[in-house]
Amino acid sequence: MYKCDLCRERLHEGEKPFCIEACPKQAMKIGKREDIFKEAGELKQQYNGDIYGMNENGGTSTVYVSAVSFADLDKALVEKQNNKSVVRLNKPENLLEKQKNWAMLSIAAPVLGALAALGLSGNSGNRSEEGGES
Ligand code: SF4
């Protein structure tokens, strides 16, 4: 089993990956993130199309430009698969964001608990000073 490594050795040699070099339609491009995103934006304008991968899942290293919106492509895929959601082009839930929120919560909870306890002990201290409970 071989996993794509973007033809790392060729990149080190200043060459393009094989698939990009071999593609007769020049349908793929590789480059600096900002340059690729800029070109993707221009192509989106040119085709009055859509981009997938810039924001999905917190942003990916591969972006796709289509003259047809990815929402329409997703709808067609779902219909073609009789609503079985095998391949989807929808905006996936950003699990990283969800995990980040849980992480923040797990940090905040004990702090809030301690503050609440301090607050409660501060209140009971005030009441005893006012000669409430002994
Ligand atoms: S030829 Fe393309 S798909 Fe294959 S390893 Fe190179 S970059 Fe990846």
What does this structure look like?
The protein is mainly alpha-helical. The chain has a domain at 94-134. Helices cover 53% and strands 4% of the residues. It contains 5 helices and 2 strands; from the N terminus they run αααββαα. The chain has helices at residues 8-12, 18-22, 33-47, 70-80, 95-129, and strands at residues 50-52, 64-66. The protein has a two-stranded antiparallel sheet. The longest helix is centred in the C-terminal third of the chain and has 35 residues, at 95-129. The radius of gyration is 27 Å and the shape is elongated. The N and C termini lie far apart (75 Å). The mean pLDDT is 81. Bound molecules: iron/sulfur cluster. Iron/sulfur cluster (SF4) is lined by residues 4-7, 17-19.
Could you name the key traits of this structure?
about 130 residues, mainly alpha, two-stranded antiparallel sheet, 5 helices, 2 strands, elongated, binds iron/sulfur cluster
